[in-house]
Specification:
The protein is an all-alpha fold. Helix content is 82%, strand content 0%.
């Protein structure tokens, strides 16, 4: 009876946890889109400033870098901004072309730890009422059962081996 109760708890725990992935990935994608938009706005402002001086972005970065320590630091910061925008834009484009099940396979594309941390800070669990949420819940339930079964099997293994060696 206790084993069945533990199995049910493990299954429900797995279902509750894994079923949250579609909502978490959706919230990550929304924040990612916001971050990409903000970086693009910043880059557009920089490009407008460069254009007003008849400079390309690259020429403006070189010019900025030659303007002393502050200019060099600002140029480095802008290069990181451009690189970050490219990386996050690529992640966003990849995620937008994936469905919720494919997003689970490519969860490692959540490459920005700061962004993922902010999503997690503000994340509110949701009841999985979508098809994919229910499928993830079933997978989590079965995973919880399998995990508990494996753990129980490992815990019983030494006793089973002891019984075999102690039998005449």
């Amino acid at each position: 009876m206790l084993a069945r109760a533990l199995a049910l708890v493990a299954g429900l725990g797995g279902a509750a946890g894994v079923s949250q992935f579609p909502e978490y990935s959706q919230q990550y994608m929304q924040r990612l889109g916001g971050a990409v938009d903000e970086l693009l706005r910043f880059m557009d402002d920089f490009d407008k400033d460069a254009a007003s001086l008849d400079l390309s972005r690259d020429a403006a970065l070189v010019d900025l870098a030659q303007g002393g320590q502050m200019g060099a630091a600002r140029a480095d910061s802008m290069v990181r901004t451009v690189d970050g925008h490219a990386r996050l834009s690529s992640d966003l484009a990849d995620m937008q072309n994936l469905g919720p099940f494919s997003r689970a396979r490519y969860a490692t594309r959540f490459t920005d730890p700061e962004l993922a941390g902010r999503v997690w800070e503000n994340y509110k669990p949701a009841m999985p009422v979508t098809f994919e949420g229910i499928i993830f819940a079933v997978i989590g339930f079965l995973g919880g059962l399998a995990l508990l079964s494996g753990l129980i099997h490992l815990l019983r293994l030494p006793f089973a081996l002891f019984r075999r060696t102690s039998e005449p």
